[in-house]
Records
---
Amino acid sequence: MDLKAYLSSRREMVDAALERLLPADENGGRILEAMRYSIFAGGKRLRPILCLAGAEAVGGDPAQVMFCACAMEMVHTYSLIHDALPAMDDDEFRRGVPTSHMVYGEGMAVLAGDGLLTQAMVLLSDPAETAGLDPSRVLEAAQVVMKAAGYVGMVGGQAVDLASENLRPDLATVQYMHAMKTGALITASVQSGAILAGGDADQVRQLVRYGRRIGLAFQIADDLLDLEGDFDALGKTVGADQARGKMTYPAVVGPAQARSMGQGLVDQAAEIAESLGPQAAPLAELARYIMARTH
């Protein structure tokens, strides 16, 4: 399949849906402006695309899970806003543009992140968006997403990340931290799409295995890009992890071994996707893309 064309078409679908679900409104004030600034600042839309592909992989209609895909992007964008704050990573650029706090100030950036997280919860429980879906599956998918975003997932991983700065790197901590910080939301993306689209227990279980592998591989690739990438491609400052004493895969095992680990994970993920049949071909190609990407 033509992965580039697939990603482009899915990005357009997601962007159109986000525009519908978070429209400009002069009554929304500066807070809505700040929320839209970050949500429409670009990005790969990987998590929403994984949600749509998860639905496709079990024979479902991706249009039916678009509300969940957009909720995933809102959760992810909120995390980027907060992660970039001076109290966290203190980044001036994300996605190639000034970060929210650089444009709107720290207080408004915190609120913009809060607003996007809350709007994601609104979407996941909106009767208009979930009409026609099995209510028990809607609830299950919402639980999956919010749990992955919380203290046993992304927020917990970020807390470990902060606590681990300038400590001696060790592999167990890095794997645990990134499985929560990055892997949990990526896994929830593909898992929630499959749940909403009617996937059976075995299909969902296989997609969770897939998600956990590409989640870790994605973080390995990010760690390597922070060492080897450039600002124009990444849209953010490179070398920041090393400067802040971050615990990363290359810091523990070296760049070559980290790359080998990441490649092994995406190979396993692609094999899992292929076992689900031709409708999961986009997931197999997405897995291979993880380690080949340049941003």
Note: The chain has 16 helices and two strands.
---
Amino acid sequence: MRDLIYNGLCAIRLPQDIAAALSAIILMGLILGASMLVYWVLRTYLLKIIHRLTEKTSNTWDDKLMEARVFHRFLRMIPLTVLWVFIDRGLPGEFVLLKRLIFSAIILIGVRAVEGFLNAVSEVYHQSRSESRKPIRPLFQALIIVVYLCAGIFVISVLIDKSPWKLLGLMGGLTAVIMLVFKDTILGFVAGIQLGANDMVREGDWIEMPKFGADGDVIEVAVNTVKVRNWDKTVSTIPTYALISDSFKNWRGMKESGGRRIKRSIYIDMNTVRFADEAMLDKFKQMELLRDYVIKTQAAIDQHNTEKRIDLSATVVNGRRQTNLGIFRAYLVSYLRNHPDIHQDMTFLVRHLQPTAQGLPIEIYVFSSDQIWTNYEAIQADIFDHIFAAVPEFGLRVYQQPSGADLTALGASLQVSCAGD
């Protein structure tokens, strides 16, 4: 082609040097035009065909590739490659700097395409609902950084026409500077590998880290930061390495267990604890959840007292007797065992704690079968609503510190008592 143009210019009696220069310029223009034509055809027809195919398929990965503009970037490489090949073949000893610039542009566009591909793969993976998926975004981000560093070395080597391996040797002397500049990225990369390998945190996990004011769901695990959407809808940003160097609480175990713990105490006024007399036992036998327990327990107690020939009339502390507090605990166990929202296969305790100045704590330690926060709170509230309402039926009283109204009522009753005397 160049010879044809050159011969045509010489035929019109142009000087040879001018004809050679003009033939090179004309050929360069034709090559540019051909490259632009290739790009126009690819963008106008091929890209539209690819877009329509991705819309028709039921897969999500091709849609993510389209959103990440992977196809756009790969198609841009084709006309640049055509341009570089034509210039290299048609003008081998000329436009050297232009060829280097074009080749550098091909490398950079290729890196951008690889970046889009990796981001698309990461998005598809993190959108999966698998409970066992691990956060791979930090690994992909670190890989993108490595790809860009390698591309930068190759671009510089192309522009200065030196071997990239020599540049890598020079980079070795700058290791200390690189370590200082990319310290956070390196620490985050190492932390990301440890988090993924040990399965310490995943996107969607509920974590608690008071040091950084984080208490909510993990929405993103990146190289440098982990983002947590708190329950008040604010977002806390935690350095990724902090999840390795500091402690945090991950509630994933609670979700995987199938239950959510209810651990709460009520304080009983110890002055109201007493032995159950016949009238109380008769009353308790009328309670559906207690009838069998009271009858069986009383039968066992009567048998024991008879066998030991204990004189029950001498004092109430002789022999074995039921107490209103013991029967109340049995009622709580029966009530919770029959509750439809309590997980019966997990830890189940109704126990006394150490008495305090505020009374005797009766702790409820069970697990709800519903883990959703709002449902869990409603279950817990319903249970303790019932318990507080049931306490007086056992001759017990819940302890609470006297309020101003209580003291006023007590003062008024004393005044009436004194006036009566």
Note: Strands lie at 206-209, 214-221, 225-230, 235-239, 249-250, 260-268, 349-352, 360-368.
---
Amino acid sequence: MTPSHLIYLHGFRSSPLSTKARLMATWMAAHHPDVVWWCPQLPPSPQAAAELIGQGIANWPRESMAVIGSSLGGFYATWVAEQTRCRAVLLNPAVDPARDLAQHLGEHTLWHRPEERFYFQAEYVDELRALQCGGPRQPENYLCIIARGDELLDWHEMTARYAGARIKLLPAGDHALSDFEDHLGEIVEFLGLS
């Protein structure tokens, strides 16, 4: 079934201006302008991000929506997919962001808008723990694109967390999935958009 609604969730310090988000938005506009596309700027607070996502998809049809998430956005995408049972594409998904981001408290800039600053607060770690949902209950709903060369996240953890899912394990690559365009065909096929 072709999705009627698709949400893209970016990673930590990222934005809708990321290369992957823009490539996906351009592809959707060219090939499926009828599909509702939403790529929100997520706030630094995980609780606020979850509320924004939840409100945005509240009226979306569960049987025909899908989600794509990169890094921390992959963690949020898992949370969405576990609630809605929708299809999910995860790009180097964060498995334990509460543990990983606890080392990054303080002020940060956005990758694509370095003039914009935000503060990652200690309570955000607890908010991440509250959203943790473990491995997928319906792994067949997931496509995970994971790079062995990810310099930030451990590919062993990612593949273990999503055991049973469709996993494309890249022999090298990087955290940003700089070759994202090469995987678009498989992503749109998995989502039913091809």
Note: The longest helix spans residues 19-31.
---
Amino acid sequence: MANHLHKGDLPAGLFDGVESVAVDSETMGLRLGRDPLCVVQISAGDGDAHLVQLDRATYDAPNLKALLSNPAITKIFHFGRFDIAMFHLHLGVMTAPVYCTKIASKLARTYTDRHGLKDVTREMVGVDLSKAQQSSDWGAATLSDDQVAYAASDVLHLHAVRARLDGMLAREGRDGLARACFEFLPHRALLDVAGWEDSDIFAHT
């Protein structure tokens, strides 16, 4: 089990043959169009995490872009809506197919309103994530060991969380509904990018 930091892009062929990868990102803030994408972290669920510290002058990361858009590999997120929008804005790719553990949690864990990654991971797999570095400077030229460990922790457990949530969704008969939501998610992200970030176009008002 190790965390690997890559400058600019993933090594070629790193995730060849895998069916799914867990993905997250770190940015300078949460405002689309204002805050740049800085780091993308990925895990195949094998205990290793690979962090890409992007070159923000070019965002030239062909191997990362190919992985995100690979139709044969499912990308597992927690609140993928934001990451997918950021990837479209800065990397110019549509990320698909996708699975979102936050959406799955909201559909399966209707007995609670606590659907943040920390709460879901604690209940589903018994891991207590630290959020101490959540608001740190991800645009720094050199990332600290604490930042790397924090970013890695956000993807290391998503495969196991997904497995638990899949069981709950099937038990409650909501797995088909979840799949439909995941298929729509990239389009919801495009609505955000196009300016409907704070608007629910499906609402009556």
Note: DSSP finds seven helices and six strands in the chain.
